[in-house]
Amino acid sequence: MEIGAGKGHITKALAQKCRNVVSYEIDPALYHTLKSALPPNVKLYLRDFLKAPLPEMPYKVFANIPFSQTTSIVRRLTEGERLPEKAWLILEKGAAKRFCGHPKETSFSLCLRPYFNMRILHFFRREDFHPAPRVDVVLLEFAKKPEPDIPLAEQKAFQRFVRYSQKYGLWGSRALLTKKQVSTALRLAGLPGIAPSGDILYVQWLCLFRCWLRFGRKIGR
After folding, report:
1. What backbone phi and psi angles, to 5 degrees, belong to 88?
2. CA torsion angle for 20, 24, 30, 36 (degrees, to 10)?
3. Which of 7, 42, 162, 195 could form a disulfide with 38 if both were Cys (CB 3.0 to 4.6 A apart)?
4. Within a 10 A sphere around the Cβ of 54, how many other Cβ atoms?
5. Sheet hosting strand 116-123, strand order edge to edge
6. Which phi and psi angles does 4 have, rounded to 5°?
7. Residue 24 Cα distances to 128, 146, 185, 217, angstroms
8. Full-prediction pTM beyond 0.90?
C-alpha cells in the first residue's frame, strides 16, 4: 500500500516488485494524470488515505508521506486492529527520532513499542528530492512484533495510562498508583526502581501498566 502516489515514481517501482499495489492520491489532477499510466496490478484511488479502510488481509506500506500529515498517518497505521506487517515511511528526521524514542521516550514512542520495532534505515540527501526539502529526511521502518507486548484489546488502556501518568506522575494525589504499589510491582518483577532522574524504562512502563490493570485507580476518579 502506498500513501500519496503523487507523480507515480514510487508507485511504478512498487508495481515491479509487488504482486498487488493499492495507492491513494487526494489530488484530482495528479490522480487523473497518473491513472492511465499504471500497470494493471495497481489500484489507484482518488481518496484521502486517512478516511479509507485498511486492508483486512496482511499488508505492507511504502510511502513518501506528506510531512504535514505525519502524525495522523502514523496513528492511522499503528492504532487499531489492522496493523501493517511492515511500514517504510519517508519522513522528516526529527519526527522519525521522536517515534523511535530519541533522545528520550515520549508518550507516542512508548505507545508504539508494544507493537512495533522501529529503526531508521536510510538517511537521504536533500538533493535526492525535487524540489529539495528544507529539513533532513530519512526512511523509517516499522516492523510489527510477532507477538505484541500488550494485547491489542488493551492498546487504548495503555495509551491512557501512559499519557495520564506522564501528566500527573506515577504517584501522588492524582496518580493511578501509590508509591508503594510502584515500588512493589517493580521489585516483584525483578526490575530496578525508578531512577532519581525520573526517567522510566519501557519495561518498567509495561510492569506498572499490568499492576494498574489489577490494582490501580480508575482514570477520572
Report:
1. -115, 115
2. 30
3. 42
4. 15
5. 60-64, 86-92, 137-144, 116-123
6. 90, 80
7. 23, 28, 46, 43
8. yes
